Amino acid sequence: TCEAEAARAAMGGSASLLPRETLGEYQELTFLSKQEILLAYKRFSELLPKEERENACSARVPKSQILTLPELRANPFQHRICRVFSTSDDRDDSMSFEDFLDMLSVFSDSATSDIKSHYAFRIFDFDDDGTLDRKDLEKLVNCLTGQGEESRLSNTEMEQLIRNILEESDIDKDGTINLAEFQHIVSRSPDFARYGGLQW
């Protein structure tokens, strides 16, 4: 099992080993190379207390620890990223090793633009209702421009910007942006997904 192998590896001084079959499966299911998966395992283990490291495959890392990763620390969407990739039943945004791998896989340069745009859409969908409405767009703009007084848009500027975004993107004119409409925007502007923090 993953745990037994990891425990043996930990005793040998290197907790970065995963069983070959598990490694192969992870490679098939992600956009990551074997080396990247092993490095991810090492990084994930290091986020755990020492006594839990040998069971890294079955442990969950709390959100507070995930947010210490340099890649997330400065990301304006850090809380949404944890929410979207966490499979925690408690909705505490903690992550299992597989959640962590999924996140790294989507952030990887090898991930397709369709996968990146799908996750960017989920990250921007703050109320998790499957569409980007005015409230989501307002939060999105605030995340990108910062919350400081000097960078905050006035109500008029915000209203104008959201109107422009909807005019440009809301193909069926229902006042919201669905996933297909969002992917259409991204296909015309590949840099857009980067704003979802999907570029590390």
Report on the architecture of this protein.
Keywords: Calcium, Magnesium, Metal-binding, Repeat. One of its GO terms (molecular function) is magnesium ion binding. By secondary structure, the chain is mostly helical. The chain has two domains: 20-107, EF-hand (Recoverin, domain 1); 113-196, EF-hand (Recoverin, domain 1). It has helices at 2-11, 20-29, 34-46, 63-66, 70-73, 78-85, 97-107, 113-124, 134-145, 155-169, 179-188; strands spanning 60-61, 95-96. The protein has a two-stranded antiparallel sheet. It is elongated, with a radius of gyration of 19 Å.
CATH class of the largest domain: Mainly Alpha
- Our measurement of the CA-to-CA distance between the termini, rounded to an integer number of angstroms, reads 31 Å
Strand content: under 5%
CATH superfamily of the largest domain: EF-hand
Write the element-wise H/E pattern from the N-terminal end onward.
HHHEHHHEHHHHH
Give the total of domains: 2
Number of E strands: 2
Oligomeric status of the shown chains? Answer: single chain
Radius of gyration: 19 Å
Q: With helices defined by DSSP (H or I, 4 residues minimum), what is the helix count?
A: 11
Low-confidence stretches: 6-16
Strand order across the largest sheet: 1-2
Shape category: elongated
User: Roughly what is the average pLDDT, rounded to an integer?
Assistant: 87
What's the CATH architecture name of the largest domain? Orthogonal Bundle
CATH topology call of the largest domain: Recoverin, domain 1
Give the proportion of residues in helices.
Answer: 40-55%
Pfam families: EF-hand_7
InterPro entries: CIBP (IPR051433), EF-hand-dom_pair (IPR011992), EF_Hand_1_Ca_BS (IPR018247), EF_hand_dom (IPR002048)
GO molecular function: calcium ion binding; magnesium ion binding
Protein name: CIB1 protein
